[in-house]
Amino acid sequence: MTIVDKSLFRPTPVLRPRRRKMLAPVVLTFEDGTTCSVVVENVSASGVQASCAQGAPAVGTQVRIALPEIADLWGVVRWIEDTRFGIEVDARGAAREKAAEKPAAPSQPFKLRG
User: Fold this and answer.
1) Count of Cβ atoms closer than 10 Å to residue 77 Cβ
2) Per the database record, which ranges form the PilZ domain (predicted)?
3) What is this structure's pTM?
4) Sorting pLDDT into bands at 50, 70 and 90, what band is 110?
5) What is the predicted pLDDT for the residue at 78?
6) Could you tell me what percentage of the chain is helix, strand and coil, using 3-state DSSP and rounding each to the nearest 5?
7) Domain ranges of the chain
8) Which of 25, 38, 97, 105 measures 20 to 30 Å from 52, CA to CA?
């Protein structure tokens, strides 16, 4: 006996993070320190889509990308299509690095003028 007609239900869509379109030339740095000029096409909370005239890096390659006005991020190339490729970024790692860059507390306490 069927209680519910399963054909009436559709799977819940997996929503992708919102993307911010941009066309920005940036430098991509590989694990061995070599660099490549790329154009970032869009950015989301979880990744970056870019293109490289010299060809896309291989899937699985670890890279660091310096995004203007956003942050330096590191991630892994997850897909390639011709010269375009996608990088899954570790935004938490960038947040940790940014927190580590905060200036240290002054060695002498501040004195108020009075």
Assistant:
1) 21
2) 19-90
3) 0.65
4) very low
5) 94
6) 10, 40, 45
7) 20-95
8) 97
Check: CB of residue 103 under 8 Å from CB of residue 72: no
What are the tens digits of pLDDT across the range 73-99? 889 999 999 999 999 988 665 545 555
Residue 25 CA to residue 51 CA, distance in Å, equals: 10
Identity of the amino acid at 3: I
Instruction: Tell me whether strands 20-30 and 71-81 are parallel, antiparallel or unpaired.
Output: unpaired
Give dist(CA 40, CA 32) in Å, integer.
21
Reported as a single tens digit per residue, the pLDDT across 45-80 is 888 999 998 889 999 999 998 887 777 888 999 999
- Report the CATH architecture of 20-95: Beta Barrel (2.40)
Neighbours of 57 (CB within 10 A): 20
Give the pair of three-digit tokens for residue 63: 């890279």
Rounded distance between C-alpha atoms, residue 62 and residue 59, angstroms: 9
Residue 42 · residue 20 · CB < 8 Å: yes
